[in-house]
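This part of the workshop introduces the protein records we will be handling. A record pairs a protein's sequence with a compact description of its fold. Comparing a sequence with its tokens is the quickest way to learn the format. The record below serves as our worked example for the rest of this section:
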Amino acid sequence: MTKNQLVKTAGKDKVVLSIPYDTAEDRGKYLHLEIPKKNLVASFIPNEGKPIADITKATIKAIDHPVAGKPITEILKGAKKVTIITENQFRQAPVPDVLEVLLDRIKKAGAEASIVIGCGKIPALNPEEIKIKLGKKIAESGVGIYCNDVTHPENYVYKGITKQGIAVSVYKVVAEADIILTISSTQATLWGYGGSGMVIPAVSSDDTIEFNHIMSLAPDCVPGNNKCAMQMDKYEAAKIVGLTMGINMIVDNQFNVTYINAGTFEAAHKEAIKAYDKVYRFPAAAFKKNKADIVVTGSSAPTDHLFFHTGWVGMNCWPIVKEGGSIIFTTPCPGYGSWTGFALMDALKPYMPVSAANHVKVLKSFYDKKNGLWAGCIWYKIYTAMMHANMYIVTRKENIAEARAIGLDVYETVDEAYAAAIEKQGADAKIAFVPYGRYSILDTSKK
């Protein structure tokens, strides 16, 4: 939706904010919040552009005319074993059409193809989930399909050590390939940008993932910083393993693919970041010293099932909200399979309420390995965001008891959350609106 659709005048002195409240299964839902017009100091709404009409055609163009490196035809000359790495079910890039193009080219080149779903430390997909992720046709095609599964350490091959001192061991199907292709989503993440992690964590061993993820604790490991140590280490791991070509997609807040490129892994990913930043990186220098009291943000359909994934918005909104400010966040979190909407977030419970003393306990839990960083790198960032600003969460009724038991501030309606924020921040609170929080990079260094 456009700015005029998301922010509407209501009489002389009021505006109504339409806050995204989507699920993948029920899209186009919004919660509406009326606020005084004078309180709204800024809205950060992306112009997402037109969807790509023909994914197959766009994929062919991308792999035949890469932004860097050789075209696919040259890459596949003489190839014997080709492995394609995809993301897991919680990343939004749709892969069936892209896979069909790649598998056709691999077959014509006379090579053997395999697919590895980059689960990292997420449990392996079941057959039905594989059909959804890869498409029924490919799932039943006879092509070898594997899931990264760190519970079987015997399936990993050591490849080398990065400059950061991380020993890289990868899934053996990847290690045995002479050509490695990747399909990934480019999006702001808690650690920089998505799409860089197609070796770590996607197809790496438990130890490789854990040791790399210690870098997620660094203060500069934040959305939109492509130069943090964790991001650089992922790029280096990709070089060590020998990724041949990366295919990068940008998927908008309505699940439409708006961009596809291909090329040598790091160079193509950086080009995709440039395209992403043109839409989702906002100049917010005005908030460097004069921050908002309240930020209102929502969640859209992609990767919306769990608060574990939607709650990242706290870090995205941090740059523009004052210390001790309030973030109102609407997120339905319908759950996924047997996981409830706030599954995995109970890891916070021993360290609530957020405080400096409990923060030290959190850090200690990672170093003595009571908590793994594969999950901790996510909930830790949510925790630190809540140390900076109060997060008032609006979610489905069935999530309320679980979320409150964890120690989170949750509400059934956005009006209740707004009332709580205004009570804390005052009637004259400066309010900023960031409807698509997880996608947005708020850059206070740029005018």
About this structure: The chain has two domains: 3-44+284-443, 55-278. The mean pLDDT is 96. The domain at 55-278 is CATH 3.40.50.11440 (Rossmann fold).
